[in-house]
Specification:
Length: 282
């Protein structure tokens, strides 16, 4: 097991059941923001670890071989039904995993190069950035915005309330999520705000200016996890010293590749991303 993973992701592992354009439900597909993010990191040659909570039914050894997965066992693995209509997704919660506590952090895991926090269901507190001293921190706050009732139908909150002493370096949200939030509010919490927009690409705010990143053509098969692939590829490129525009294009290519396969199978390597970018510039 890794003593000091350079890329550390935190959040539930999960299963997704996809229903596309009113079709039949898929089988349970292993996923979770932390899984997508660390697989991208691993395929970039970066040592990776996950702090999580999941049930015994999640195929860790099969799906996440080579990634150091730590945390507590839960009675259930978080599970979602995803109803897709084009780029639009409606979700229903099927099951939820357990909370993740600071006491679960392994010795030596508090100073990763990259900290990637992707809560799915409020499983970690909003001051979690204070637990670590990373070189670069990234928050994908989808799980802190989710709300649900007895029927499991998920809606999104209109406010993101974070209790933290220091800012995140990067926050990544989807266009659907930002519809209920103000950019002004997010600027209080981060130096760089990324808004992913599906087929329209992405917009990145830094220092008062917006940078538009185009989408890269692809043949979509499964849109689940696209935002997590985008976000992890973006912060990896930033950590490599790339500028905002180059990191955004790296992320755009990663996302285009990722949605061309089912679930975690599409997480791209650095070489695959570079090849896709080379193709569009020929």
């Amino acid at each position: 097991m890794l003593k000091h993973p350079k890329f550390l992701a935190i959040g539930h592992l999960s299963f997704d059941v996809n229903i596309v354009d009113g079709g039949s439900p898929s089988d349970r597909i292993p996923g979770g923001a932390s899984a997508y993010a660390t697989l991208v990191a691993k395929k970039h040659g970066i040592s990776s670890g996950i702090l999580t909570s999941m049930g015994d039914d999640y195929p860790v050894e099969e799906i996440l071989s080579g990634i150091d997965v730590r945390g507590i066992k839960s009675e259930h693995t978080s599970s979602f039904a995803n109803y897709y209509d084009g780029d639009n997704r409606n979700q229903v919660l099927i099951a939820s995993g357990s909370k993740i506590f600071e006491s679960e952090i392994p010795v030596g895991w508090t100073q990763p190069n990259i900290l990637y926090v992707g809560p799915l269901l409020h499983e970690v507190p909003t001051d979690i950035v204070n637990w670590f001293k990373p070189e670069l921190s990234c928050l994908v706050p989808s799980g802190w915005l989710r709300r649900w009732g007895p029927d499991g139908v998920i809606t999104h909150a209109r406010d993101l309330v974070l209790s933290q002493r220091k800012k995140w370096d990067v926050i990544v949200v989807s266009e659907a999520e930002i519809a209920n939030l103000s950019i002004e509010q997010l600027r209080l919490f981060s130096e760089i705000i990324c808004v992913t927009r599906g087929q329209l690409g992405a917009r990145i705010w830094k220092g008062g200016d917006w940078v538009d990143i185009p989408a890269i053509k692809s043949a979509p098969v499964d849109l689940t996890g696209a935002g997590d692939v985008w976000a992890s590829a973006f912060v990896i490129a930033l950590n490599d010293g790339r500028n905002i525009e180059d990191a955004g294009m790296h992320a755009s290519a990663a996302s285009a590749i990722g949605i061309e396969s089912i679930g975690l199978l599409g997480c791209p390597s650095r070489t695959e991303i570079e090849n896709r970018l080379s193709d569009i510039h020929l």
